[in-house]
Amino acid sequence: RSFGLFSNGETIEQGAGGTRDLVEPASGAPFGTVHLAGEADVDAAVAAARAALDGGWGRTGGTERSRLLHALADAIAANRAVLIDLEARNVGKAVSSVKAEIGGAVECFRFYASAIGTIGGRSNAMGASLLSYTLKEPVGVAAQIVPWNYPLLMAVWKLAPALAAGCSVVLKTDPQTPASALRIAQLAGEVGFPAGAINVISADGPTVGDYLVRHPGVDKVAFTGSTEVGHLVM
Questions:
Q1: Within the chain, what is the greatest distance between any pair of CA atoms?
Q2: Does position 11 have pLDDT exceeding 90, yes or no?
């Protein structure tokens, strides 16, 4: 199997960072090849995320975002068998464990799809002629970094709240475990998320990950990993 990048609504089979062989941890058998992102791929993914935020995704209202998140939850449930196979073989987990994670992923998207209706500001009258109000807006392009051990579930925990808020995303997976997050991004495209709303790259942290968190086009970074690397991200 070959796992590429997902950028601007398209699966890209070749990244600027070369390739890496994947194995099944449970058996040591070959599993596939991942195409790694380079700095040029980060630039392209961030540009796609910014264009989506300034374009179609930025104009997508809360009701439609809710519908899309529910549709993605439906797609994950419908593709349950494929995702279980990918995650179990790529990460080396028991199928029973992955089944529970798939259920959690579906419920996470449904929770944030329902929560979109609660995103709002406040208005207060200030005397006879003034009205003070707050307006909540997406923070912008979110760079998201997830580790190798729960790649599907942690990707969902990152994606769902950001998308509910109207942010666009560049998600970096660990290069050892790219399979499930890439498939979720593809499913998002299939159910109607605009190109650039979700972008997924696989790359090493010290090089491309460092470039991503320093990128001037990124407005927010969400990271799960070691304390040491968390310090570097800060």
A1: 74
A2: yes
Alpha-carbon distance of 27 to 177, in angstroms, equals 15
**Running DSSP on this structure, what letter comes out for residue 195?**
T
Q: What is the pTM of this model?
A: 0.93
For the chain, give the mean pLDDT: 95
Task: List, for residues 157-182, the tens digit of each pLDDT value.
Answer: 999 999 999 999 999 999 999 999 99
Q: What was the pLDDT predicted at 116?
A: 94
152-187 b/e (C-beta count within 10 Å ≥ 16 → b): bbbbbbbbbbbbbbbbbbbbbbbbbbbbbbbbbbbb
Over residues 43-59, the pLDDT tens digits come to 999 999 999 999 999 99
**Which is it for the CA torsion 201, 204, 205, 208, positive or negative?**
negative
DSSP H/E element including 220: strand 220-223
Residue type, 37: A
CA distance 125 to 167: 30
End-to-end CA distance of the chain: 36
Residue length of the chain: 234
Token pair of 103 as six digits: 């259920």
Residue with tokens 């994950």: 76
pLDDT of 120: 82
Find the angle CA(218)-CA(220)-CA(223) to the nearest 5 degrees: 110
Residue 36: name the closest of 177, 180, 148, 186 by CA: 177
pLDDT exceeds 90 at position 14: no
Can you tell me the distance from the alpha carbon of 33 to that of 36, in angstroms, rounded to the nearest whole number? 9
